[in-house]
């Protein structure tokens, strides 16, 4: 059965716009009992379907997820593991892939289907059923899940796996749990199962009546705003979006997944939108009477917890391949490929352009933001220097085609605002699941997707300590990463949030436990990140000043293996928040005065939320309490 599985996977291809691509490029994993004698043996006798050894099964899934994103979902990896802890290590990675709608095939080993030797090593027993294992935990985080109890079931299950993985709307993690005894069983599979099959990634088009109505809405709008999401990049619609924005003058704000849909210097690009947004994009959102959301889930960071759009008359047009997203906010739903819809709208909107006063305000907002970015990049703070200065140094060192990779913590918010993207698919942030530990593994996946480009991984000390082990894998496979490790002695982002809700950063710093109060309030822990990186095989240096960082980045480009520069930053020197708010409920009762004050501010701010999907609520100007709370959060 395992041999048949590999034989099928290596003959699957996808086609879009006449371009044909082999879909699966190999398998990541760590062999253990429950997988090595079955799938491991099958991979051994199929050297043309490469096996890659990772250091952590979660890391393997992150590598695969980032690779699929960098390839615009037209190529993918499978990931395998032993039964038990090896399998459950992949669950966080599975959730990350599914939330971000990125294809990855998970092949965890499983317990015996014939049961007679149970309980086997690492088996979780249930008093209620024989039909359960830890692999059932993959069900809520997979877009498709199956357990292969008989070898002939593979014939029916594999086409379903491919249907899901190649679907623009339904893709995510697909899990096939593989009982270890069934993997080794033989079956007379049909020859057709191993023939080349090409799966068409279609470009579905919206209903023509709805397209015509969308064009009418846009023509009637006085202050329309585009929200560019990750679907713009997945559908390779960046050029179509740039043409439509230039043609109509409609400004655009970008989500984390959609950043890079427009170059930063495009006249209509107002930059990041939402909680981590720029002032211009958020002011445009507040005033917009029409929001054209393209390829976005409209998550709470994009909508500022549904406070971003304050115009009482605001309406939504949602362009999305996924029906669930197309209908959000009581929108006019264009269930469609992003590029196809944009091309239709460009034709329907011939001759339309936003009114000159609105266009002038957009230009002023954009100019003001570029000056603010220059100010933050040009700070001469410290040492320790500011995180904004570090981002500026990396942005200047990176070429237009190079890629920046990051994930959870304070870096995504600052990068979303500050990073100046020049080409699509050069800004790679995992912020759908905001998964700490994604950064270095994800960077390896991005590098494997296009080895010709330099990859800059920006990672905080918290994420580095969670999962730095794939540095060794990058050395093993010969893929060089440029890692910028920002050391702020703990969890800076959540520490700032803790301060904003009145808790003073409790439990978020890396400190010794103090005898005076029994809390983690002593001196900072001395962690030598340079030695840690060197121990994994990387070249590593420490930088203190901006000049040190710039020198290290210049040297990195000429290194032949993964390199790390460790930079201590002042976590209290934060990039501000601009014209936005995020709903983080504050304790309704507390013995701490600062928390009681934060709750009072919160109760005023939360009144600005759109309470349901049918109508907008609230005035166009934010209340003073919202502004105060926003400033405290940042």
Quickly describe the structure.
The chain has 25 helices and 21 strands.
Structure description:
The chain is built from 25 helices and 21 strands. The chain has four domains: 2-200, Rossmann fold (3-Layer(aba) Sandwich); 208-368, Rossmann fold (3-Layer(aba) Sandwich), CATH 3.40.50.1220; 378-489 and 525-568, 3-Layer(aba) Sandwich (Rossmann fold), CATH 3.40.50.970; 593-633, no CATH class. The chain is globular. The protein starts with a helix and ends with a helix. Helix 3 crosses helix 18 (438-449), helix 16 packs across helix 17 and helix 24 packs across helix 25. Helix content is 37%, strand content 16%. The strands form four sheets. Strands 4-3-5-6-8-7 form a six-stranded parallel beta sheet, sandwiched between helices. Strands 12-11-10-13-14-15 form a six-stranded parallel beta sheet, sandwiched between helices. With 634 residues, it is of the alpha/beta class.
Please give a handful of descriptors for the protein shown.
six-stranded parallel sheet; 4 domains; 37% helix; globular; alpha/beta; Rossmann fold; 634 residues
